[in-house]
Amino acid sequence: MQGSKYRALATFGLLAASPAWATTLWQEDFSDPTLAGKGATGPGAVMDMTGVSNWSIDVSEASLSADSDWFRVEGSGLEGRDLDGPAVWLSAPIDINGHGATNLRVSLTEDGDHETTDIIDLAYAIDGGAFVTVTNWDNRGDADHTLVGDQPDDGDWLSAEVEQTLPKGSSVQVRITFDNNAGSERLRLEEVRVSSGSESPSTAAPDVVINEALLSHTGADNTEFFELFGAPGTPLSGLSLIAVEGEGSGADTIDERIDFAPTDRIGANGYFLAGNATGLNDNYGVSPNLDLDPNFENGGVTLALVETASLVGGVGNGLSGSESVVDAVAVKEDNSETFYFDAPVVGPDGPYFPAGVRRVQDGADNDVAGDWLFADFGLGNDNTPKPGFDLVINEILASHSGADNTEFVELYGTPAAGLAGISLIVVEGDGASAGAIERRIDFDGTQRLGAGGHFLVGNSDGLSAQYAITPDLAINSNFFENSSLTVALVKTSSLAGDSVTGDELVIDALALNDGDSGDSFFFDAPVIGPDGPYFPAGASRNVDGLDSDSVSDFSIASFSLDGSHSPMSSGTDGGDGEGGGSVASCGDPAEAIWAIQGSGATSPQEGQARTVEGIVVGDFQSTTDGLKGFFIQEEDAQADGDPTTSDGLFVYDNGFGVDVAEGDLVRVSGTVTEYYGLTQLASVASVEVCATNAASATPAPLTLPESVNGELERYEGMQVALQHPMTVSQNYFLGRYGQLTLSSPDDSGQAGRLFKPTNQYPAGTPEAVTLAEANARRLLILDDGMDIGAFGDNPEPVPYLGPVPPMTLRAGDTVGNLVGVIDFGRINSAPPGEEARDYRLHPTQAPVFSEGNPRKAAPETVNGDLTVASFNVLNYFNGDGLGGGFPTARGADTPEELERQERKIVQALVAMDADVVGLMEIENDGYGPNSAIANLVDAVNGALGDTVYDYVDPGTSAWGGDAIAVGLIYKPARVDLAGGTSVVGLETGEFTQGPDQRHRKPMVATFEEKGAGERFTVVVNHFKSKGSLTGIPGDEAQGDGQGNNNLSRTNAANALADWLTTAPTGSDDPDILVIGDLNAYAEEDPILALEAAGYSDQIEAFAGKAGYSYIFDGEAGYLDHALVSETLVDRVTGATEWHINTDEPAVIDYDQNFNPAGYYDGNTPYRASDHDPVLVGLDLGGVAPLEGDVNGDGTVDYGDFSALSGALGSVAGDVTYLESADIDGDGDVDFIDYQAWYPLYQARD
């Protein structure tokens, strides 16, 4: 119910579970040092395959056009970068003759922001035949491709283990095809492996895994056990579990061997338990499927599930090396031990041998230690031994004479077996809807089979009237459609979405056929019917529980409600006879909502079936773009008055079919669940509207900040009324997810936005820690109540901006009198389990915002004779510069998007009117007439109507090795590149460029103020971000708020400062201005390092602690800096940030992928980028030349007329040309210059 207020966009990898195969027949992992660089590189696809014999490549259809384009071995993997066409890796033929079942496993990774044009295809050919492509692996590809970037369900896959069981043959050849179109997108092949089992493979499916094992515990070790997990019904015959000694001279000895019998199989719930029956019954109340005393040793051991036929010896014998391993895990005490079968090694637990191991998620197997947690020495709840049990659909009545109000499904299996983790689904079989899951019941922890093995799901009224029986779980009448369908019992965890995927773990299934042609049935279920020309009434087993998965197990049921039906509930088996799902009637006793919520972090009634009554205070029932449910609250008269317990609850009805409205009094039956921290009523069995416009449920008054983080839990599910205005701290997700980050007044009552703690105080200091904690207590998410799918809900019109033309809503604006319901949910687009979650308010009354941070049409003046600016232009890429080359690697996808992006950037640059501008994130495509920087300068000059700006051309084809670069533009009329100096960059040490580079190459240039002769050096930087890790030890986030890669950024700051002491441009003037996106906030280590080297932070000098240029996670601070050398401090006349970007909602920027039409305005600079520009004013103190003093003698007199006459008719570059005579600065001396000079002569003192 509660969650951390720390939020970060998640980076994640998905690994498919896979079996361990015994023998590797062929492998390539590219780790051989001689393979480094093998492949094709750069223009002309220069090929180096010397010494490579077991694979080849083909890049004939790719287009490697730059030095940074390649298809070659990089860092123990084959990497494809900016391929612009398919590139193929092909193995030599691999001998698989005589090896029985063979398995192909390919490890693939990617890095970057991928699109659907980026693909990897895995294909194989047996015995020289046609290649067969593996398609849509793990739902991360499509019908034609194995893996596709940016698929709706793939979460931008970062890694995948693609696996295929190969047909029998003599040889196989493996082909892997890559295609991508940007240097920022890297597709990598890490390993190809072909393995085999034995010629006599086990009858057990290879996906049976060791799930849990208790090896040691407090007291006598009389409760040891191991638990297996796998597909329900999987036979274990042909498998053995062995424990292999890992200590001393006994290492590799088999200490335990357990051979499974023909009757042993994975239970209907997916489990099989073996262990000490007495201890398990006494301590956990369960009976194992196999009673034995494992007698595990308390020292280093490898547990392995192996094929029995592959074992040479038994207990006391050593390993032979021929073991065919299905799964293994090792438990470690100290470093002296040896482990086997490449098993993941878990432990030690502090200084001790672990009690045992249990999987983080049942059955989730990536063959890594991260799959496992430690077991509990104290025989506590962390240990969860689960015996397998039998379960079948025993009888079903789906239709009968009269109204269908006596339908039922009877289950039968192991007496007293619990049903938690199992679902009953009904799958449509007709037409275009075939495969849709029409009905779904998720059983909970309170529901179990009776003493006689029965459990009844059915219509309460009809069963009571016809058979005098109460079902264990009630369903509505007409639960079944009278057309072809499949009813199945499945593992709940295997269900994904509203349709059959093929990945369901099926316990039992039965299909009913209406006889229409073209109908579909699922899960290889026995198909019963039709009954003559009719849909069958149902089916019943001829013998309870007898299951051969064939039609012969069943007889067709009678339509007549006579004695031929025999529904049995758990109560008729000798249980308590009380059904758990009956809803009774409005006004009957119901569970109090506050009792369900409780005062703790989770509901004390989690997993229990409950009926509640309450007032609907928030209606979000839409299944297409809503929350798929509604919020109810106790009537005022029913509230408990306890401030620590919530009176509200979310009902997840997921299209149950009863429409409710705010103000309705409703009665709902369902199961109490915890959904990622949100207490809710789910698996809804009934919803009844008892009254409309009912008695009120008054919004609870709410005052923030919380006294402790997480205190909003006591309002979860309730309607609240904020008692004070809130400040908008971030609006980045407004157009994508309909969310705003709001901040309350602080503990002293001072309202305002949140600031990044490390922008205000050094990391790790008590002040920074205190501010981080205070920010968490002040934060609340305002959400539009639409569902956040993996790629956003993209509301249109955008909430609070209104229809086109929109208003703006800036960070710093305020909103008062908020009323809405509180829940706890996702606040970003990462996949379930990885996403950030926090408390959200869904408004039930329209919020009214007030302007608190108005736009400024121009930056504040910084005075001085010269202005220097820093501007991150957010991936300004211009394609090929000729209208083609789209989509670009990082920026605009189309020429229209480029035009939209460019208009805003140009508006900003024109208004800034700086004399020198340092740019970040401009395309690194050189300095020719079609380059991005030339394109941008041309656009600015075009807007100004004259050639006002030029760009610094360092004389290279690119600047550094990244797709983006820094750059400099300037006004030639105001400054020159200083004579005798060079434009230089640092590209050694910390700034080394190439595939593993960390920072963009800085650009350093010395300028001279026109006429005044004063020089100053500008250093433009873009340090490594806080996002993806460099891989350098110590760059991992340290938990102090500085994020990833702080060490590298600090090293960069020190290296830069040291290098600048060498006067790299050749200038001996000590005035230096360091600008750019340093990706570090004001009090973080990199900035402190520069300050320690003598540089002064000018944003802090002029804006104090209120400066900011960027907002992340609702907290403002400045990543964009202006630091000056000691000699320049007194010459700075001002510094400011122009807040045109980070305060604005991203939905108004140039992007057309998600932004609704009409929200973009190209006549303004607002949201030209995501960073705000920085401006610095300088007064260098030089003596300006006396205007009209052509001969430079310090006076304006007739001698100047003579000098001007001597230069008359000359142009720049002529020997006779005098710049001082070119009064109008047009490059030639003519009569117009004389006309301009004469008034100066007349005005002389």
TrEMBL record:
Stretches with biased composition (Gly residues): 572-582
Gene Ontology BP term (one): polysaccharide catabolic process
Residue span, Endonuclease/exonuclease/phosphatase domain: 870-1171
Protein name in UniProt: Endonuclease/exonuclease/phosphatase domain-containing protein
Pfam families: Dockerin_1, Exo_endo_phos
Region (Disordered): 563-584
Signal sequence residues: 1-22
GO molecular function, one term: hydrolase activity, hydrolyzing O-glycosyl compounds
NCBIfam families, per database record: ExeM_NucH_DNase (NF033681)
Sorted UniProt keywords: Signal
Listed CDD domains: Dockerin_I (cd14256), MnuA_DNase1-like (cd10283), YhcR_OBF_like (cd04486)
InterPro entries, alphabetized: Dockerin_1_rpt, Dockerin_dom_sf, EF_Hand_1_Ca_BS, Endo/exonu/phosph_ase_sf, Endo/exonuclease/phosphatase, ExeM-like
Database matches in PROSITE patterns: EF_HAND_1
